[in-house]
Amino acid sequence: MTKVPPSVPMTGDHSSEPLKDLDQRLKKARAQTGMDEGQGSATKEPASGAGLAFRIGTDLVSGVLLGAVIGIFLDRWLETAPWFLIGFFFLGSAAGMLSVYRTVNGLGMAAGYQKAEDTRSKEREKAAAGGKTSRE
User: Fold this and answer.
1) What gap in Å lies between CA 27 and CA 35, rounded to an integer?
2) Where are the domains of the chain?
3) pLDDT digits over 61-92, tens only?
4) In sequence order, which residues have a C-beta less than 8 Å from that of residue 92 and are 6 or more positions away?
5) 136: pLDDT strictly greater than 50
6) DSSP string, the chain
7) Which residue, of 4, 57, 98, 107, has the fewest CB within 10 Å?
8) Max CA pair span of the chain
9) Residue 64: what pLDDT?
10) Which residues contact residue 107 at a Cβ distance below 8 angstroms, ignoring those fewer than 6 apart?
11) Cα 63 to Cα 97: distance, rounded to the nearest angstrom
C-alpha cells in the first residue's frame, strides 16, 4: 500500500493555475517553432537521402541481430542448437525487411498499413471547401 506524504492535502480543490501556465508556454513554444499539435517526429520524413539510407541499414541490421540473439539464447536454454538460431535469423530478417518496406513507402508509425495523414493539409482542404477546421 502506498503512503501519501503528510504535506500533500487529500482534498480535491487543487489549483489548476500551474497547468494553465504550462499549457500557455507549450502553445507559445509550438507557435515559435512552427510545430502544430498534430505533428510529431514519428511521421516526418528523414531530412536527407543519407538519413534514409542510415535508417534502412539500421532497420535491416537490427532485425537480423535481434533475431540471431534471441535464437542463440533459446538454443542454449533449450539445448536445441542451431534450430532456434536459424528460425529466428529468418524471422529477424523478415522483420527488418518489413520495417524497410514501411519506411520506403512512407508508412512510418501510422496504424496499420495506411499512410500517416497530414493534418494541416486536411484542414486547409476543409477551409477551402468552406467547412470549419478543428481550430475554430
Assistant:
1) 9
2) 48-109
3) 999 999 999 999 999 999 988 999 999 999 99
4) 63, 64, 65, 66, 67, 68, 70
5) no
6) -PPPPTTS---S----HHHHHHHHHHHHHHHHHT--TT--TTSSPPSSHHHHHHHHHHHHHHHHHHHHHHHHHHHHHHT-TTHHHHHHHHHHHHHHHHHHHHHHTT-TT-STTSPPP-HHHHHHHHHHTTPPPTT-
7) 4
8) 68
9) 94
10) 101, 113, 114, 115, 116
11) 8
- Say which amino acid occupies 101: Y
- Amino acid identity, position 25: R
The model carries a pTM of: 0.50
Closest to 92 measured CA to CA, from 106, 78, 73, 110: 73
Residues with Cβ < 8 Å from 108, sequence gap 6 or more? 42, 43, 102, 115, 116
Tens-place pLDDT, residues 24-58? 888 888 888 776 555 555 555 555 788 888 989 99
Answer for the pair 117, 92: CB distance below 8 angstroms, yes or no. no
